[in-house]
């Protein structure tokens, strides 16, 4: 299976950390995320902000928090390559909804000391205790992905208006709707840290068919962390099999969402279950609504209208039906101007 992974990554052999094109830039890296099975760094490269994600392959972190086995890595790579480099998967021009991939490869060796130091400081600062004395083997293999910088997590974003929150949810909906149509896509792990918000200053995005111009209020959405996702293309299906990953059910933050997802799928993960996307987007609507209240963004009536507008999401059969039944608010739409 290792050779299959190397083939998908476009490699003939495993490389070392020292052979990676970003190795000389590790000294200038900044750690931005610290997960159970991955480390994420921000690096300036050619005056461009990029993101390096390092995932250990076939390693059980302390206390068996998570295991990223090689067959899961293969599915993950297939999914991120298909989604991240798909032209306008969202159905909008110049807006794919997933960060562009610049490089992806498998390396082997000792985790670089400079990154290990960053990880330790990040862990102390945020009171995280992932390692617990765990020391990876000398010949540990890692998957390294380099993507475009796509902003800050939704969980940390400071909204400037309720209208902006509306646009963010609709951007997510359109990303998912088109990914469903093209690839029968499910994310299956859409919590607030897996949605990135970039203050790129854009005013709007235009659909490929020129039928809608959606106001963005200065922000663009990107969906990340596709480890648990599912896609289907040319009769081939890539997915994460939760039936052998029951540890997910113990997650305290979104445990109830996972439990409801289990009910929807019947613990059968290869099939396409679009209702899970509605479930997760509904979860995000609830999170955003609570954050708007906590930050006291806009008026009470506006925040109430936000939650009411999306209240029927989880009751719908799929996103396409919900969009047909629920009109996009006028304040989110720019008039279509046709050239004469």
UniProtKB/TrEMBL annotation:
Residues 26-340 form the Protein kinase domain. Transmembrane segments: none annotated. Pfam families: Haspin_kinase (PF12330). Gene3D superfamilies: Phosphorylase Kinase, domain 1, Transferase(Phosphotransferase) domain 1. SUPFAM superfamilies: Protein kinase-like (PK-like). This is Protein kinase domain-containing protein. It comes from Gnathostoma spinigerum. The lineage of its organism: Eukaryota, Metazoa, Ecdysozoa, Nematoda, Chromadorea.
């Amino acid at each position: 299976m290792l050779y299959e992974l190397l083939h998908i990554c476009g490699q003939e052999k495993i490389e070392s950390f020292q052979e990676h094109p970003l190795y000389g830039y590790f000294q200038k890296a900044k750690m931005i995320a610290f997960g159970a099975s991955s480390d994420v760094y921000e690096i300036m490269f050619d005056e461009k902000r990029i993101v390096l994600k390092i995932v250990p392959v076939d390693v059980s972190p302390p206390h068996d928090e998570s295991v990223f086995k090689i067959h899961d890595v293969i599915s993950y790579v297939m999914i991120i390559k298909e989604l991240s480099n798909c032209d306008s998967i969202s159905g909008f021009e110049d807006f794919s909804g997933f960060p562009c991939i610049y490089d992806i490869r498998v390396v082997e060796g000792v985790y670089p000391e400079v990154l290990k130091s960053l990880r330790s400081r990040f862990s102390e600062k945020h009171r995280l205790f992932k390692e617990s004395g765990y020391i990876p083997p000398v010949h540990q293999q890692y998957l390294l992905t380099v993507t475009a910088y796509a902003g800050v997590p939704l969980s940390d974003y400071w909204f400037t208006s309720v209208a902006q929150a509306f646009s963010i949810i609709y951007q997510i909906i359109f990303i998912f709707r088109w990914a469903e149509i093209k690839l029968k896509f499910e994310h299956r792990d859409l919590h607030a840290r897996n949605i990135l918000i970039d203050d790129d200053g854009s005013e709007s995005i235009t659909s490929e068919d020129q039928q809608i111009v959606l106001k963005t209020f200065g922000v663009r959405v990107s969906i990340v962390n596709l480890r648990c996702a599912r896609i289907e293309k040319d009769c081939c299906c890539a997915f994460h099999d939760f039936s052998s990953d029951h540890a997910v059910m113990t997650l305290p933050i979104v445990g109830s969402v996972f439990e409801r997802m289990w009910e929807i799928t019947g613990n059968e993960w290869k099939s396409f279950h679009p209702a899970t996307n509605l479930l997760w987007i509904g979860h995000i609507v609830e999170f955003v609504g609570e954050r708007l209240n906590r930050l006291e963004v806009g008026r009470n009536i506006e925040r109430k209208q936000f939650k009411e507008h999306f209240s029927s999401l989880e009751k719908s059969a799929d996103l396409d039906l919900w969009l047909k039944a629920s009109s996009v608010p006028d304040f989110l739409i720019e008039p279509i101007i046709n050239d004469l």
